[in-house]
Fold this sequence. Notes:
Elements: E1 2-5, H1 15-23, E2 28-31, E3 63-65, H2 66-71, H3 74-77, E4 95-100, H4 110-123, H5 128-136, H6 147-167, E5 174-178, H7 186-193, E6 201-203, H8 208-221, E7 225-231, H9 248-259, E8 261-263, E9 275-279, E10 286-287, H10 303-307, E11 314-319, E12 322-323, H11 328-340, E13 344-349, H12 354-370, H13 375-409, H14 419-439, E14 449-452, E15 462-465, H15 466-473, E16 476-478
Parallel strand pairs: 1-2, 1-3, 2-16, 3-4, 4-5, 5-6, 7-8, 7-9, 9-11, 10-12, 11-13
Antiparallel strand pairs: 14-15
Amino acid sequence: MFLxxxxxxxxCNLLFVVMLLAMAGSQxxxxxxxxxxxxxxxxxxxxxxxxxxxxxxxxxxxLINLNALAAGGLVGSRQIDPARLPVPxxxxxxxxxxxxxRLEPTNTDxxxxxxxxxxxxxxxxxxxQQRVIHVLQGKxxxxxxxxxxxQAWEDRTEGWIRWxxxxxxxxxxxxxxxxxNRHGQLASWLRERYSWLxxxxxxxxxxxxxxxxxxxxxxxxxAAIRVGLIYAYPGNANTPGRYESLxxxxxxxxxxxxxxxxxxxLKDLRPGDPLLLIxxxxxxxxxxxxxxSPQANPFPFPLSEKLAGYEQHPLYVxxxxxxxxxxxxxxxxxxERWKSGESDxxxxxxxxxxxxxxxxxxxxxxxxxxxxxxxxxxxxREEFLTARFLDDVLYQSRIRQEMEQRLRSAKGDPWAxxxxxTVKYENELTxxxxxxxxxxxxxxxxxxxxxxxxxxxxxxxxxxxxxxRQLRADTAYCR
Length: 479
């Protein structure tokens, strides 16, 4: 049992990590504030010393999100002044993650809503993103920009970086990601300003806890992991996704270096070596949420042709052709190969951003390859895989859109459900999700899975079985 401070209590940052650790037979000790019923929106008091928590976590690699430690999470870290933060004692040997907050002000009151919309409108204009970068680089004045929010972002970001420097963490134990980095090359500016961050900053946010967990497991087992890499459309591997600044191939390379995973040429794969398939875009990355139900890439993807000759290699798939949801046609073909025994599918992800999906799949790959097979490992690996198909494809790419259309037609807000709306949609969506998953052959029974909307919005869902809910209920707490 070891200390785990997640970015927040959303499923991607807490439950996913707990499930992946269960694959390895590991159990984290969560800070008590993450126990059910606690309000995580308010920033917590920073513990005098994480080592003084009671009961004390047993030896193991502490996994600590610095936003959560200092400000209660990502939202809190957009609101506080990091210059006023103390430097808390940290346990030795930990792995640390910090998410650089996004440019827009936090949307919490009328004034910040107006500032938020002002920045959004400006960044959507031609040249708006590049002008922000020029201002941050000192190449242009701030007079033509919505200067208040941008100045606040720059000051806050520099304050956070100085606070991290004061922590004196080993740089190779620190993962820094940029939240929603579509607005120009903000990460590039950060790497230029702070040279020591040049190899550490990458796109993403919500995959960070999974990457920390996977690295801790790989290191503890001393595993050397080799992987073969196949792109659906290799000609576009050097282009970034909608929400990234780094090209896909560079983003993957950075995540793999963090994990300690090595890419080898396909011709050098040994029997049993894992194969990572990146289902990227043929023209440019779409967005399943913004464009209606996503279509498959314009040209049918030759899945069988791409995987010919690699049937005996464990297969891990990142479906990044669209943001905010997987490609239903591709996912169905992949699932059929898995159930027919044509592919030894171990992991799939197609949710939110390219960085999120890639990090999720790589985390499963690293843990799966580092940990010997056991009944428990195989059980949690399949639970996680099935949950990804239900969540990333059925919910995110299809059911969520239908739900939001109904909400808007009734003048509801998908980002702020009322308690009654939350209960209503949870009941309705659970039935619809299970029925559709059963009809497609993705689950053996039209029951057994449930859907919850824990943050009372449509953006993320918690899709679980009774076993997953019990795993979460059994999690230990420190205070």
